[in-house]
Amino acid sequence: MKIKKGDNVIVITGSNKGKKGKVLKAMPSENKVIVEGVNMRKKAHKARNKGDVSQILEIAMPIHVSNVAKRD
Known about the structure:
0% of the residues lie in helices and 46% in strands. With 72 residues, it is an all-beta fold. The chain is elongated and about 45 Å long.
């Protein structure tokens, strides 16, 4: 896998086509990468302790490395 953490990439296929971002995490064993601001999903976070607040978080989900290309 030639794409590493910290590389700037562009999404070349899929619903996020054309979006650009920085690789936050590379997972070579799964051939996936997590790109900043791409493939965002909403996840509910339940309050566990008294005083905590339940909230909905947007987190970046992994995409296959073949769907991104390095950009300079």
